[in-house]
Amino acid sequence: MSKFDVIGIGNAMVDVISHGEDTFLDHMGIEKGIMQLIEKDRAEVLYAAMKDRVEAPGGSVANTLAGIGSLGLSTAFIGKVKDDALGRFYADGMAAAGTAFPNPPAADAEAPTSRSMIFVSPDGERSMNTYLGAGADLDSGDVPVETFAGGGILFLEGYLFDKDEGKTAFAAASQAMHAAGGISGISLSDPFCCDRHREDFKRLISEEMDFVIGNEDEWKTLYETDDVNAALDQAQAVCETVVCTRSGDPVLLRRGDERAEAEVTRVTPVDATGAGDQFAAGFLYGLATGRDLAICGQMGVIAATEVIGHIGPRPKADIKQLFADAGLLG
Length: 330
Prior knowledge:
This protein is of the alpha/beta class.
């Protein structure tokens, strides 16, 4: 038996969430709806400007693991935080949520703990301003091989590719998971990530990954095409399972010769933060429990729909009960 059903690796990020009108975003020079990397001084300015801050342990893959854990599977998150107030808050918060955090806060970390200032617009769109901090300094030496004993599923966060150290951590983790008999996959994370790291992502997908999850813009950017199916064709030529979310349009899923679509009911989000993270949680829960591809996709859609109905990137409702209500657990 695997010690952990799903192991994630990514940037250990404290999410700081606040409302932000469009006029405020314009005034502060924040580009709406994307993730922007910022330096420490800019992070301090934006933090001070937030009027109704809510802080929570976050990071894309960490949010996914929280969703998977709420569904009853065992999870671990490999990340790096400094031994400072936010770092201790992060480690304690992950443990309290039931996700193992193997690496203790590092007293010798050069940078402060990572944080992302997220401004939620009235239309539910989120604009992320991310200070990479200590989390982005995670490298292969921070990957505890014993965590992978027994296999399972490894899920990687594309954002961590913004520093070379993260690439070495990904390689070490993927190799450890495959050696233990498990599978590895990645979230493409953001179109700008795909543009910045195109060749590295393509190499990783072809050489290391068993599955890849991305949205339509990410897939098109990665393969430099306006045809999402052409992008998926290129990916699936080198990777067993590929998944494409498309906002209010059906999710496209492929695994070998299997094709599926998961229908989406269009709603106006209260807060789109975490939609992709919780789609991944539902999808990976289905994958870990042996569901077919269509049901994996439907589980992802249900989890994503729940999280965009409230503020914050993690589920508040009983997602497993929602799966049961939809007839997906029979």
